Amino acid sequence: MPLSWKSHARSILTGAVLIPASMTVTSAESYISVVLPQGSLANDAVELGPDGKIYCTYCWFGNETRQILRTTPEGDAEVFATLEPDDCTLGMAFDGNGDLYSANLATGEVLRFAPDGTRSTFSTDPLLDQPADLEFHPSGNGDLYVANHGNGAIVFVHPDGSVETFYDGPLVTAPHCLTFGTDGELYVGNQDASVTRISPDGNATLYAQLPGVGYLDAANGRLFACVLSRHRIYEVFADGSIATLAGTGSAGFAEGPGDTTPLHSPNGIIVSADAHTIYASSGFGNGLFRVDLTDAASSPTPEEKTTGSRLLPVSPNPMSERVDIRLHTSTAEIAELSIYDAQGRRVRQLARRELSAGIHSISWDGADDAGGRLPAGVYQLHLRTDSGTDSRSIVLGR
């Protein structure tokens, strides 16, 4: 199978041999270094080039500076491409010729940059709707997969610039990022901070719920996530749980051990082939961090790993006609999901059945048990399982 330029560049960066997914480890410790200091105008997507340099986009509405920066791992930076004032280039990917492709959210285009920074338009197909992130298919067939933030579809662009829809369904909503795993699955980050996994045949499932938004990247059989609002970088596990890899929860530009050193709003992320090195941009601090992970194999501590059955954040909230209520069950168990009104009366039982371990979605149309439309107001979702209970508020509008 031909290697993508991303995989090749990851190997150049670390001197690593590509390791099969079966050899994955869970890092217990990390060390944070600052590659580009605060104010360096690098705040969004991060990509590794075939030259071993790190490429960072800078796009912030209200700021006239729009550019793609590139830097060595040591922090020797230069402007790779200066963009137009109406551009907003986000996700990036390199092809086998060393050309850089970027999703232009503001203009609905996929742009292409030659190795010298010369710009051209690769695709302006009508199926592109606020493209936010992109990545080449790992098979090397030349198809470029794109997350449409506007209409929520995942599309792919053929080498000739034509576009086809890959997935357009309810489990992807306003996606802002995507990445291919070593298992061939596509992982999509949604605006409500959920992660959707899509199989090669287009079958989508809810994979995890993160505590906030940021880019995803996968390497060596592992999935990593930046969360701007939490100032942390996480690892995401197959059961939907997460563990903190770096950051304390407070914002800062500093160097030191990952569990005691702050990060500032990590946003874009790229991971080396061996999953030992992470580069992350600072969404609100405008800089670039490097996080080195140890080889120590251990499980995340109980306080880091999400446990127990629980309700996931509701979206949309307020709701009007219909909402998909997502919940995570830690084991196979009986789950009862009900709706209560402001007086504490149960008005609807949505489910009472055994659910397998994982993330599930149950719909509510705003009606009571008799099928009548409930009045607008604040209601409580209540989940009861053998492992505990959980509640969330939801606003029903009309």
Automatic annotation (TrEMBL):
Residue ranges constituting the FlgD/Vpr Ig-like domain according to the UniProt record: 329-386
- Cite the InterPro entries for this sequence: 6-blade_b-propeller_TolB-like, FlgD/Vpr_Ig-like, Secre_tail, Vgb, WD40/YVTN_repeat-like_dom_sf
Q: Please give the Gene3D superfamilies that the UniProt record associates with this protein.
A: 2.60.40.4070, TolB, C-terminal domain, YVTN repeat-like/Quinoprotein amine dehydrogenase
Which Pfam families does the record associate with it?
FlgD_ig (PF13860)
Q: Where is this region: Disordered?
A: 297-318
Signal sequence, renumbered to the chain: none
**UniProt name for this protein:** T9SS type A sorting domain-containing protein
Organism of derivation: Eiseniibacteriota bacterium
